[in-house]
Design goal:
mainly alpha
Length: about 100
């Protein structure tokens, strides 16, 4: 059986949390955040931390360094798992008569 068929999808904001916290999705987004965040941390902040000169602002930047790839990875999953809303027949008729050629 294909595991993709059981993965959650969403069409409204209430269903979004189930998609983001789905174990396979969460594992992937956290893995991406750790790999990308660590690479960026090493390039941008490691020297300051190793020298003992990390200020509260530097620690905030480090947190954002990991949070940004986590958010972007979640955005990708949310984009792929969105389920289109059903278009009511009345709305479909309106859309078809008012679209531009």
């Amino acid at each position: 059986m294909d595991g993709a068929s059981t993965r959650p999808t969403w069409s409204n904001w209430r269903e979004l949390a189930a998609v983001v916290t789905y174990p396979q999705h969460l594992k992937r987004t956290v893995t991406v955040a750790l790999i990308v965040g660590t690479a960026f941390f090493a390039m941008n902040q490691l020297a300051l931390v190793a020298a003992g000169r990390a200020t509260p602002l530097v620690w905030l930047k480090i947190a954002l360094t990991y949070l940004t790839p986590l958010c972007m990875s979640n955005f990708g999953i949310v984009s792929v798992t969105r389920r289109p809303k059903e278009i009511r027949p009345r709305d479909r008729a309106h859309w078809q008569t008012n679209r531009r050629p």
